[in-house]
Write a structure and sequence with these properties.
Blueprint (H helix, E strand, L loop, with lengths): L11 H9 L6 E4 L6 H8 L3 E5 L3 H12 L2 H16 L7 H8 L6 H17 L3 H16 L40 E3 L3 H4 L6 E4 L8 H4 L1 H8 L5 E2 L4 E2 L12 H14 L4 E7 L6 H9 L2 E11 L2 H5 L1 E2 L5 E3 L5 E11 L7
Helix pairs in contact: 1-2, 3-7, 3-10, 4-7, 5-6, 6-7
């Protein structure tokens, strides 16, 4: 899967085990799904997953990793990826914007992205099959980018991986879960919160950085809308206008309260860490209004960009990271007077 700030890659086993330990749980709504690592892990465990994210690239990842089932897409996806992988490069918007005006990718890889993405658009594929091949292209580009893990800047010198040739690979699509077919939504979290599931899993943004700004290239790759861009990083112009209450320190608490009021699941599991807008104590206070709260702590590495270092918008290293580890929390809320048994 793609490199991603806030990824729960190392925490998926813990999240899965905690949710699986709750009584009579067979379905989960992941309301801020991001890369869909958590949803993918829960689907692999047999649960029916509804994955939601308001960014188009994340909804596409969810359609691939949560909604699509291997038996339905394996053969046509393999044929398509073989066909698309043989296309010669042809420079277009992607090459001009992200290889020439900026330096996120080597031009020869940008040209292949242009050719492959145009071919996908021309085929008018079934949404699930299209999601699988789009994710294959997104992940192929991610393996040859020249960033610190986010797309707010590119490196001043090419990353070694940027010299590799772009290669399409079949994403790790799973068979249908025992509990039933999953679904992918592209909505605001509060609109998706009414899903009929046993558990609502919440992993909201922790700070003021917008995910669409951090991963604007993937948003453009999925939408393929050739937007107007600005700045050294060639961000989509709509990055300035697209906002979330969870990116605002003054508004985040009210946003969380409203979201919790909308949730209909019997259990709520919230993932957060000690670097976000909320303290452990303030979250326990907010969540405690909805039921009994159990808190689980785990020491973890910080996101990949922190491991690499601090860079300015021109890709030059300018600072030193203060710490490389943080504390990840899981807050388990047993609603309606049910007590969590984790």
């Amino acid at each position: 899967m793609i490199k991603y700030i806030g990824s729960k890659r190392t925490l998926v086993p813990l999240i899965r085990d905690v949710i699986a330990s709750l009584p009579d749980v067979h379905s989960v709504a992941d309301l801020f799904s991001g890369t869909s690592r958590v949803g993918h892990g829960l689907k692999a465990h047999g649960m029916r997953v509804v994955a939601n994210d308001h960014n188009a690239y994340a909804a596409t990842l969810a359609r691939c990793y949560v909604q699509a089932d291997l038996d339905d897409v394996a053969r046509p996806a393999a044929q398509l990826l073989s066909e698309l992988g043989k296309l010669p490069g042809r420079a277009g918007y992607f090459t001009e914007t992200f290889c020439e005006r900026s330096r996120f990718f080597q031009p020869r890889n940008g040209e292949r992205v242009d050719a492959i993405r145009d071919a996908i658009a021309a085929k008018h594929l079934d949404p699930e099959l299209e999601a699988v091949v789009l994710v294959a292209l997104m992940e192929a580009a991610d393996r040859v980018d020249s960033t610190t893990g986010v797309q707010m800047a590119y490196l001043k010198q090419w990353a070694p991986r940027a010299h590799n040739a772009l290669e399409l690979r079949m994403p790790d699509v799973l068979p249908r879960a025992a509990a039933g077919k999953g679904a992918a939504l592209c909505s605001e979290a509060i609109d998706a919160a009414v899903a009929e599931v046993d558990v609502a899993y919440l992993d909201p943004p922790y700070n003021s950085h917008k995910y669409v700004g951090n991963y604007h290239i993937w948003e453009t790759l999925v939408r393929w809308d050739r937007p107007e861009v600005y700045g050294i990083a060639c961000k989509r112009i709509d990055c300035r206008a697209r906002t979330s209450v969870f990116n605002s320190r003054p508004r985040a608490a009210d946003g969380l309260r409203a979201l919790l009021d909308a949730v209909r699941a019997r259990y709520v599991v919230v993932s957060f860490n000690n670097e976000g807008f909320f303290t452990r104590e303030s979250l326990v206070e907010i969540l405690g209004l909805h039921g009994a709260v159990t808190v689980i702590e785990q020491d973890a590495k910080r996101y990949v960009g922190a491991q690499i270092g601090i860079y300015n918008p021109a890709g030059k290293k300018v600072g030193r990271v203060g710490h490389l580890r943080n504390v990840e929390y899981l807050f388990v809320v047993a609603r309606h007077r049910q007590r969590a048994t984790v």
